Amino acid sequence: MRKTLHSLPYFSANFENKRLNMSSVFNTPESQAGLGLQYFIHGWKLIFQRQLLPFVIFPILINALLMAGLIWLFFANIGGLLESLLPSWLEWLSVVLIPLIFLLILVGFYFAFTTLANFIAAPFNALLAEKVEQQLTGENLAEMRFTELLKDVPRMLAREWRKMLYSLPRLLALFILGFIPVLGQTVVPVLAFIFSAWLLAIQYCDYPFDNHKISFARMRNALREQRVMNFTFGALVSLFTVIPFINLVVMPVAVCGATAMWVGEYRNFFLDKTNDGLAYQKPSLQDKRQRGIVPKA
């Protein structure tokens, strides 16, 4: 008999003591999209767990302070920026150009906000990912003490810089394509949303991967193997990021959901020492049965 989502260990009260792999039941593209949705929903559930609340608060505070500062900066300078970016000889096109320039400035501020937030919150997000993994697996992981956290800050910031180097050339290409007539108004917005969803999946899935010192390249290759699931997860994060007030809590929600995804989809493979140095390959049903992730037929 086919299992339902709520009959899986992932949704049971004893989830933290069970090893899971939801993809053992859901293997089609449609069900992979469902997996992305379920991990995102579970992220919302996790942020309200009492044991995790202290680690959730810091990313929310960082988001709130940065957003308040950038909103003030945006509205305090938007008038001057619009005037300086619109030459006098193009005033006759102001009806068309002012909304376009306004949108470009808004996108610039949004990118600045997300970049700053990710850099500043990286250590706290890594700590939150560790605590979520502990709770979901029931294992006593090597705890990240404050002194160790400080020592790891340069490595975490270097990882954030690595992600930025990955995204900037692609964002720049989309920005340039946006000026091409017709293409810029039809295809580019769709491509921008798809790429934004992929980037956000990378951004938040990277925290649990990085906690285990798994390289950026290996992490990215692993996400590609289940791209529909990861795209769905990233798309939901992207959509909720633009909702006022709710976007303040999206960061910890995404970290919690991505860590649940790490535990459910990737952890068993990457922490198996016999696989060190190999590229991630989605485990077969037989492999999962041998590891005890799913029951034998």
TrEMBL record:
Chain ranges passing through the membrane: 52-75, 95-121, 190-209, 230-263
Coiled coil: none
GO BP terms, alphabetized: cysteine biosynthetic process; sulfate assimilation
Cellular-component GO terms for this entry: plasma membrane
Function, in words: High affinity, high specificity proton-dependent sulfate transporter, which mediates sulfate uptake. Provides the sulfur source for the cysteine synthesis pathway.
Location(s) in or outside the cell: Cell inner membrane; Membrane
InterPro entries given in the database record: CysZ-like, CysZ/EI24, Sulfate_CysZ
GO MF term (any one): high-affinity sulfate:proton symporter activity
Membrane-related topology note: Multi-pass membrane protein
Name listed for the protein in its UniProt record: Sulfate transporter CysZ
Keywords: Amino-acid biosynthesis, Cell inner membrane, Cell membrane, Cysteine biosynthesis, Membrane, Sulfate transport, Transmembrane, Transmembrane helix, Transport
Family membership: Belongs to the CysZ family.
Main location: membrane
Record-linked HAMAP family: CysZ
